[in-house]
Amino acid sequence: MAKGITREQIVTAALELLDEQGMDALTVRALASRLDVKAPALYWHVRNKQELLDEMATFVMRCVTDALATIPRGGDWRDDMAAYACVLRSEYLTHRDGARIFSGTRFADPEVVKAKESWLERLTAAGFSLPEADDTLDLVTAFVVGFVIEEQERSPSTGADPARYSLAGRDAWLGEGAELVKAAGHLRDDGDPRFERQLGVLLDGLASRLH
User: Fold this and answer.
1) What is the per-residue pLDDT across 157-200, written as a single tens digit (0 to 9) for each?
2) ∠ at Cα 182 (176, 185), nearest 5°?
3) For 34-88, how does the pLDDT look when each residue is reduced to its tens digit (9 = 90+)?
4) Are 97 and 14 in contact (CB under 8 A)?
5) DNA-binding region located at which positions (predicted)?
6) How far apart, in Å, are the Cα atoms of 70 and each of 76, 87, 116, 127, 199?
7) 46: three-class secondary structure by DSSP
């Protein structure tokens, strides 16, 4: 193992690089330069970019687990899943492209995976079968990942080009017709209201599995 550098230092530096420059700039070469080491030194700890992303996702998920541990178990599974979704979104938003690092990753710490046990216990106690409980966690997680990816992709684009998502410009571009499409565009909201509303729709659908 390369002396003078730890896996924790690598993950910390990788997250800093991610925050400053985004996912596309996150390379082993760029990370090695940031740590002032040769790229081969990193391969003692992470064999490739995917393994690096695994470690980064594990770090973020530890933060999620720690945050959720402070939330008392609710009497209603919906409250618990809403809290889970909100904490997950909050932690993803802590880092630029935070949700993207979870795509295709595999957690590197068994304790992070074991944390799922308590959620499966809550959901099965509420009446879900084990497959339904597992699907519930997967669906809520997938919703949050997708929502935050879109949320974070739109934010820098808007800063670089304020007119990119102009509704007036969009209406003019669409031309005649498609009045419902135009109206729906003007109804669109972002951030917390949209997240909470769409999460509610998802939880309503999951709740129907109990009847």
Assistant:
1) 555 677 777 888 888 999 998 999 999 988 878 789 999 999 99
2) 160
3) 998 888 888 878 888 888 899 999 999 999 889 888 877 767 999 999 999 999 9
4) no
5) 27-46
6) 17, 11, 15, 24, 22
7) coil
Contacts of 186 (CB under 8 A, 6+ apart): 167
In terms of Cα–Cα distance, which of 72, 69, 26, 71 is closest to 51?
Answer: 26
Residue 118: both structure tokens together: 């308590």
Tokens of 32: 């090695």
Question: In which residue are the tokens 């007119």 written?
Answer: 163
Q: How far apart are CA 132 and CA 120, in angstroms?
A: 9
**Encoded amino acid at 69, one letter:** A
What is the residue type of 31? L
- Annotate 87-153 with three-state secondary structure: HHHHHHHCCCCCCHHHCCCCCCCHHHHHCHHHHHHHHHHCCCCHHHHHHHHHHHHHHHHHHHHHHHH
pLDDT tens figures, 8-21: 899 999 999 999 99
User: Who contacts 7 (Cβ-Cβ below 8 Å, separation ≥6)?
Assistant: 45, 46, 55
